[in-house]
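Dear support,

I submitted the protein below through the web form. The confirmation email said the job was done, but the results page showed an empty box. After a refresh the structure appeared. I'm attaching both so you can tell me whether what I see now is the final result or a partial one.
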Amino acid sequence: MKFFETSKYYTLKKSTYIFLRWIGIIGQLISINLVYFYFDFKFDFILANLIVFIGILSNLFLIFIYPKTQLSDRSALIFLTIDIFQLGSLIYLTGGIVNPFVIFLLIPTVFSSSNLGLRTNLLLVIITISIIIFLTFNSQDLPEPLNLHFHLSQYIYYSIPLSLIIALVFLNYFAIIFGSESRLRKEALNKMEEVMAKEHEMLSLGGQAAAAAHSLGTPLSTIKIISQELLKQLKDQKEVIQDIELLSSQVERCNQILKKLSLNPNEEDDFIDEDISMREYLIEIVSSFKETSNNQFILNFDQDANSKKITKSIEIIYGLRNFIGNANKFCSEKVYIFLKSNNEITEIVIEDDGEGYPADILSKIGEPYLKTPNRKNKTKAGLGLGIFIGKTLLEKNFAIINCRNSKTRSGAEVVIKWRNKDLFKI
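What the results page shows now:
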């Protein structure tokens, strides 16, 4: 399982962005009117307000027309570019690079660096720097009010855009770093919470299993006693005797499993009592099902399949048994098991010829207590519990699980994959 994989997709919450834009628009309107009427600076007042009006219209578009609650990278790029050009146009009308409000050109890009992708942020940085350079050499001079004379040396004048560009680069760099670390911590926390929830569910299942073991002890003992009596009474009927002996052996196996659940769950199962290869794992597991199933199990092994022995793992055994048992339960006649491996990976594919996963539960596969109708007897079967246990046990042992409907057959397909370096260190 990949616990610390960062997101490939970035989004910007629309409501937050709209709120910040309203703050900017209101600030622009107050500044324009205050400077024009109170401080008596003369500039193209009507054009400046029309530029602000463009920002108002774009915000209303986001509120009433744009349907999504999140802005994608592309959408955010468009609207943030509008913001930069809008503010750049206002600064062009009001003195250019010497306008103290020019520093606000940095805000859209810095804002994007912690919320959007690197490519989007890089484009916005280039646009912002281009506008800063343009405003350095092109602008409408702001008339001086009340005979106030104000002069800047050439050194100071050109240091303003230089300092803005340097500040833009550094602020974006740190915002990207901190934003990436923040997303990483958030996703790691979410994954850990998910794992802890699964562990909690497994513990809950353990308690329920112990209770079930205690409750099932009596009926299994009754079945065992009756089967022994039948053996005595029907000892001359060889065909019946074989079935009864099989029944007795399976009852005894059930008793052994229940004993482990109720007394010592951590005690090792002697089903597989040595380190064996994955090929031998599958052969042993399939053999245990053939004793009680009329279905056909078809095993296909890659000729290059890795024969290296694997340390015995109860969790891998039970995980594989759950998935193979589920295929046996829902197939029509056949269960197909493929083993593929090379120097890098080991992959097991389990398919059946049943009806596959219902469309309405495909997205929920892996959740406990998910129910689906059993096509054979039209009763409710606990599909999700077996898959949940199998998936949890195998993922705990570094497996990657993919459950889907088969593309080549009518039934379900489970793909279980390990990296060999993970599998052989278990």
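Response: this is the final, complete result; the empty box was a page-load delay. The chain is about 60% helix and 10% strand.
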